[in-house]
Structures are given as C-alpha cells and as structure tokens.
Amino acid sequence: IRREWRHLDLLVALGDGLPALVLENKIGAIPNPRQLDGYYAGLCSTWLPFSLELARFVLLTLTPPSFVPPEPWRSVTYWELLPALRETAQNLTGPDTILVEAYAGMIARLIDVAMAYDPGVDLNAPFALSSEEWSMLNDSRLLSLVEKVRAGRFAEIVTNKLMTAIGEVGQVGAGFSNGSAIYQWFMAGQAGRLFGWQVQNGAFRLAVILGDADPRLRADQEALVAKLHSPYFDFSLTDDLRHTLGRYEGRKQWLYYAPSFVYQYRPLAPGTTWNDLLALATWFSRRTLEFAVDHGAPNCI
Asked: Which long-range contacts (CB under 8 A, 24 or more apart) does 214-219 make?
C-alpha cells in the first residue's frame, strides 16, 4: 500500500503481474478528464509493481463529477462507499471497530454537508454564504471543506460551460484563501503576461499578471498596465447582467497583490446567484479571449 506514489493518492498492489487498486481521492476540487488521462498515461510509460491490465482505477469524491470518467477510470462517491465502510466495521473487533465506525459516521456527516452546499443542486441559489452560515461553519471547523467543495464544483460547472459556449479555453481554477473560496481563469497574452478574471469574497476582479521580463516595482507595474492594457478593464455588461455588479467606491485606480497581480474590481450585488456568476464568467472569458487575440495572445491556460 503506497500513498502519493507517482502523484496518485493511493495504490493497493498485490505484487508483480497481479491486480491493483489505483485510487484518486478528492474531497474538494474534482480533476478533469484530461488530468485522469494524464495519470493513466504516466503509468503506461513506466515500470509498475502490478498488472496495468488487471488494475482498477477509481475516482473517489464527495460529490459526483458532472462528466463520465475516461477509461479505465470509474467514479465512486463516498455515499456509495458508505455501506461497505459500515459492513467493514461490523466485521471487525475491538478498537478497530470503534475507529471504522467513527470514520463511517464522519463520512456520513461530510456527505450531508457537501450535498447541502453543492452549487450544482440549485444554481438559482445565492452564491454567497450568509454571515450566519459563515460563522456557523467557521466555528464548526467546516468552512474550509464547504468552500472547497463549492469552489471545486462551481469551477467544474464553469469549465464545462466555457467549453460549450466558447471552445477549448482551459480550466477554471478553484482554491481557498483567507476564509473564502477563489474562482479564477487566465489565459496567456503578449510578453508572457496573463489576462483573466478572479472571484473572491464578493468581488469580481479583472486582472493582468505581469511576465518575468516586466518591471518588479509595484508602481512601474501599474504604470505599464495602465499604458498598455487599460481597455481590458472594461466592466460594461449587457442589460441582463447589469444587475450583478455594483459600483467601485475606492479611490485607487489600480489594486495589487505581490508580486505581479494588477487588478480592478467591482462588488458583486447582494443576492447574486450561481447562475448570475456563471453568466458573468462566460461573458468576461469571452471578452478576455477577444482582447487577447486582438493583442496577439493565442493560448489559454
């Protein structure tokens, strides 16, 4: 039994030429089909302590993926695994029984939490947690889990939407920082710069990430972006989306995260839904693509 072997979460191998279980375990973000293909391709090109033909490849997740996993992978949710965990606990004795029963109970509660906050269940629900929910989840030490599940699921939904509406434009990223989820999408532009959008803590940002050859001082970076890329920071929306963004009330024209993230933002309106955010992400991804192509930027990441 090996953990993190060749970037795989868990390998249970019986020996050379024998069956094995290859398990990719995801509590928050769900890998896309290309990532799963990459894991498998990596095994095809190296020596293995088991039979590749006899191995079973399982993607284990709290919430089911919205795609059919590529062969030879199959999807199993923790909900489907739960009966086997409980049966295992019944067949054990002593402290092992207590441990596995407690683990199964924890998994059952995590499933309930994940399903309650899965954006895919109701895209017309508000995307932002209420202050009461945030405090409750934070006090229960569940905030990180909930936000990661929400971020991973919504990133998957947006990626699928962009692939359908625009084409092969790369993955929407998801993460967690300073107590809230982050959703972001960037594409490569001229001079090694990245153009894209980011959503965090009620703010929708348009950003440029400077390249290695660009200035290192903040003031010089902001001046460069202002001179070359000001038209990119256009928050104009169609009538059906105008209600989703509020006015920027700050004084600074440019905002900044070290070492090279220059951005402007607009606050998301109260009551903005997941569907609203999905439409915003699609709108600004399309605009980013058009801007970058006009400025000689062919590649998405």
From this structure: 214/260, 216/259, 218/256, 218/258
CA distance 242 to 240: 6
Q: Each residue of 15-25: pLDDT tens digit?
A: 999 999 999 99
pLDDT, tens only, 259-276:
999 999 999 999 999 999
Neighbours of 95 (CB within 10 A): 8
As a whole number of angstroms, the distance between CA 211 and CA 198 comes to: 18
Instruction: Find all residues with CB under 8 Å of 228, minimum gap 6, and list them.
Output: none
Pairing of strands 56-61, 73-77: parallel
Question: Distance (Å, rounded) from C-alpha 261 to C-alpha 283?
Answer: 21
CA distances from 84 to 44, 60, 87, 98, 107 (A): 30, 14, 5, 15, 12
User: Quick check: pTM over 0.70?
Assistant: yes
